[in-house]
Amino acid sequence: MLKLPVEFKEKYQKLLGDEEATEFFAAMNEESKKAIRINTLKNPVKIAYSLNEAIPDLRDAYYGEISGEDPEWVSGYVYSQDPAAMFPAALSGVKPGDKVLDLCAAPGGKTTKLGEQLENEGLLVANEISGTRAKALRENVERWGIGNALITNESPEKLSPVFYDFFDVILVDAPCSGEGMFRKNPEAIDYWSQDYVLTCQRRQKDILNEAVKMLKPNGRLIYSTCTFAPEEDEQIVSWLVNEHDFSILDTEIKDEKISLGHPEWSDNNPELTKTIRFWPQDGVGEGQFVAVLQKNGGNAETVTKKNKKKKQKKNPLRLTKSQQELVGNVINQFNLPDSLSDWSKKAMVRNDHVFIPAIVLSEKTKLHIVNNGIELGILKKKRFEPGHQLAEVLGQLKQTRVVDLATLDDYQKYLHGETIKVQSDLRGFLLVSYQNLIFSFGKITGNGILKNFYPKGLRK
Predict the structure, then answer these.
(1) 226 noted as active-site residue
(2) Binding residue per annotation — 107?
(3) Is 8 exposed, middle or buried (0-12, 13-18, 19+ CB in 10 A)?
(4) Which residue segments constitute the domains of the chain, with CATH numbers given?
(5) Mean pLDDT by 10 residues, the chain (460 residues)
(6) Among 207, 226, 327, 349, the one annotated catalytic
């Protein structure tokens, strides 16, 4: 039984009324729901999970539970995410070719959905201010096979001068008081107070002030939180409308299980009913608030042309012909997705790391970059060693240079970093799969031993 703060209970009794508040508090003590999303970027194969219970109004999303050692997770075919938390990215309207920013991105649930919608076309900037959480973000983006992402570890204030009037869509899943996660993470109750709610509101405004600078005129802002507090939800949306000239767009969600925003909890703007709320008593997932807004005014076309000129700069770190040959000897053996079809023209090398940048930034740009695009691998003395991110990207297509591990024991040993004896006529670098789910590179030597190239940092 959750011990909810007296001040919290009094607040929501006043906002909801006694009957609905009673349902709300009772639902807070029910079991949390777990769910998965299917990665449509990957080559379709059969997965082991039941897909019988779909989440309302979402595609490729189902209730269910997975393990971090399951081959579906390791290979980036599924992502474990709270059902309600899937909606902000799904409602973003992102399409291939857009420039998109996920400003508060870790651990990557919303980022991976945005990248999936882009279909490796356009640009996805995923930012996380925490260095530790940025590492987890990178691992999830890599696992999902996204090749057009720039991952940064910065404050919004550092990003806004670099990307002024730049993005078509910005998603801000703002740091909040976390009321919607009380039943999932009861420790969040310990630091809750009304003063903390107001502290979060001020922080959200600071973040959004910078986000607004980076959004193109007529661009879309998706604002979400995992709290119930009107101060952080409806009142923030009203502030965006009144202070920054935004319009609230209709999410077009009409499911009876999903609640609408409350104008009376803010400035009585009837447009606030276009925002949506998820309550535990609705039975969808944890607490979540989502608003889709559009930045009014200006001419986005002028900005677009200005930005295109920057792309004409010559690549200063291009591969030499001999380096291209070393890389090509390895990766040209595989079936390459469109994002890699002209890799030799796009690839760059820095500190022996070969990568295809998602965006070429000026050398004067002082941002802490965690990852830029696809890392193809590392150049070593007279040879090229393919990287793990490349393996996850190649998993988007059916491949022939693959060894499928025969047993669960072999799979678990490989995840631990062990070498495996395999039956295969293939030699050299190849992709490693289990149950036809590609998750790593390996290398078979002359005696049929599969050398392990699964990254040490990911080993179980």
Answers:
(1) yes
(2) yes
(3) buried
(4) 6-295 (3.40.50.150), 400-460 (2.30.130.60)
(5) 94 97 95 95 92 94 95 97 97 98 97 97 97 96 97 97 97 97 93 97 98 98 98 98 98 91 98 97 95 82 45 70 96 95 94 96 90 96 96 96 97 96 95 97 94 94
(6) 226
